[in-house]
Amino acid sequence: MLEQLTLQDTVLDAAREVFETMIFMDIETSSDACPSITGESLLGSITFKGDLEGCLAVCVSQSCADRIAKNMLGMEADESLTIEEACDAIGEVANMVMGSIKSRLQPLYPTLEVSIPSVITGRELKNTLGERAVKTIVCAWLDGQEAAEFSFLYRKSASQKTQ
Questions:
Q1: pTM of the predicted model, to two decimals?
Q2: Closest Cα to residue 157, out of 56, 53, 7, 47?
Q3: What is the Cα–Cα distance from 83 to 121, expressed in whole angstroms?
Q4: What is the pLDDT of residues 11-30, one digit of tens each?
Q5: Can you say whether the dihedral through the CA atoms of 93, 14, 137, 149 is positive or negative?
Q6: Of 50, 108, 111, 162, which residue is the least packed, with the fewest Cβ within 10 Å?
Q7: Can you tell me the distance from the alpha carbon of 104 to that of 108, in angstroms, rounded to the nearest whole number?
Q8: Where are the domains of the chain?
């Protein structure tokens, strides 16, 4: 079983790597309560199976998703963006963060197959995997301005439980 503190560090380090190198945004955590993501938001999720099964989700507000997409696409702040472009960007963020987590977990869990990401829009979006799942949530501020939530849920696969 993954240690909770180590898993939080793994998720945070993976997210920092992606955001700082590919999106050009800083990530800071806070010891305060998780910042709330209000209004319209996007949740990009990606599932995995193998030695572990579960999902990673990235949830941000619509305005944060727009900033992320514009940074990824090299657009100016005043340029217009479609909802499809914002959704594609958040899906790609989930994909890149999961890829970074996967590379960090491979020494312990060498078999992890990752799906393609999916993105939903709405209000008060949450990531769930059922009662037996272990859940780690990392709440962060992007560039000190926008809230982001990274949730990693997993359980050992049936083949791992018998070992």
A1: 0.89
A2: 53
A3: 10
A4: 999 999 999 999 999 999 87
A5: negative
A6: 162
A7: 9
A8: 4-157
